[in-house]
Amino acid sequence: MNEHNTLAESLVTLTVNGEIATITLNRPEKRNALSMALINQLRETFDGLPSTVKVAIVNGSGDHFSAGLDLSEISESSSAEGIQQSFAWYNAFSKIQFGRVPVIAVLHGAVVGGGLELASAFHVRVAEETAYFGLPEGQRGIFLGGGGSVRITKLIGFSRVSEMMLTGHVVNAVEGHQIGLAHYVTAPGEGMQKALELAMRIASNTALSNFAILNALPLIAEQPMSHGLLTESLMAAVTQGSSEAKERVNAFLQKRAKKIELT
Ligand code: 1HE
């Protein structure tokens, strides 16, 4: 099945091809700046994914993944409205990060401010060589407000986030890969091909394993060690007990399954 849906105003488009959905930020004339309407459409798109979809790929149309927060929406807003706006972003991004469907980002051009905050909520990041990462909040007189203080800091550490925000240091794709902002770097235009290859691998995992990776692993990382080990043991027992896991383990033991190989 190849299904293409365009939501009202087309700020986000969805294409479903079998088990893989491609979700595109579609506001190229504003460099995919994240307005509240775009954030809402993104949340609705994830909420409405058909149950047959097993993996999503998110990319941006035009020359940039995203220029971050739509600055025109905060120029007149009060502090109270600012807090509400942040919480709306947290709500949308948490649903994506702790959702049913693993998400791969294909990044190119600017991945800055709120665009990097969004990218950090996804599970796998593929950066084309044109991608660059920045946190210009310091220069704009504002602060991270889309969860980046938590998520980006977990990816690259507090020291690097502070330095990027203080100095305006823009990190290129290769450096971004080295420090942990991206898992893969590709030539320009080849990010989607890499993402599709990764998506097919992710889709072939059991749903229960992918659930545990998305929902148990990040919680375990925040628990004290004794709690984390208990949570892990429970999750391990639940996954091992499934008939699908038993079939896969037996397939390996009976030499019917592929061996691990370096790819
Ligand atoms: C925007 C935005 C935006 C572009 N909000 N309208 N983010 C930033 O500080 C990044 C600001 N943007 C840029 O530095 C540049 O736009 C880019 C390097 C990303 C791209 O440059 P370029 O030359 O391709 O495009 P442009 O000519 O700068 O922009 C094209 C249009 O998009 C223009 O509007 P137009 O009506 O004059 O055509 C721009 O005004 C508009 N545009 N970026 C609003 N961000 C939850 S807290 C998160 C806090 C942050 O994200 S702070 C970082 C904000």
Walk me through what this model shows.
The protein is α/β, with parallel strands linked by helices and 263 residues long. It folds into two domains: 2-203, 2-enoyl-CoA Hydratase, Chain A, domain 1 (Alpha-Beta Complex), CATH 3.90.226; 207-253, Lyase 2-enoyl-coa Hydratase, Chain  A, domain 2 (Orthogonal Bundle), CATH 1.10.12. It is built from eleven helices and ten strands. The protein has a seven-stranded mixed beta sheet with strand order 1-2-3-4-5-7-10, sandwiched between helices. It has a three-stranded mixed beta sheet with strand order 6-8-9. The protein starts with a strand and ends in a 10-residue tail after the last helix. The structure holds 3-methylmercaptopropionate-CoA (MMPA-CoA) (1HE). Residues 30-31, 33, 64, 67-72, 89, 110, 112-114, 136-137, 140, 142, 144-146 line the site of 3-methylmercaptopropionate-CoA (MMPA-CoA) (1HE).
List the helices and strands and how they pair.
Elements: E1 2-6, E2 12-17, E3 20-25, H1 36-47, E4 55-60, H2 79-97, E5 103-107, E6 110-112, H3 114-119, E7 124-128, E8 132-134, H4 137-140, H5 148-156, H6 158-167, E9 171-172, H7 173-179, E10 184-186, H8 191-203, H9 207-222, H10 225-240, H11 243-253
Parallel strand pairs: 3-4, 4-5, 5-7, 6-8, 7-10
Antiparallel strand pairs: 1-2, 2-3, 8-9
Helix pairs in contact: 1-2, 5-6, 9-10
Bound molecules: 3-methylmercaptopropionate-CoA (MMPA-CoA) (1HE).
3-methylmercaptopropionate-CoA (MMPA-CoA) binds next to strand 6 and helix 4.
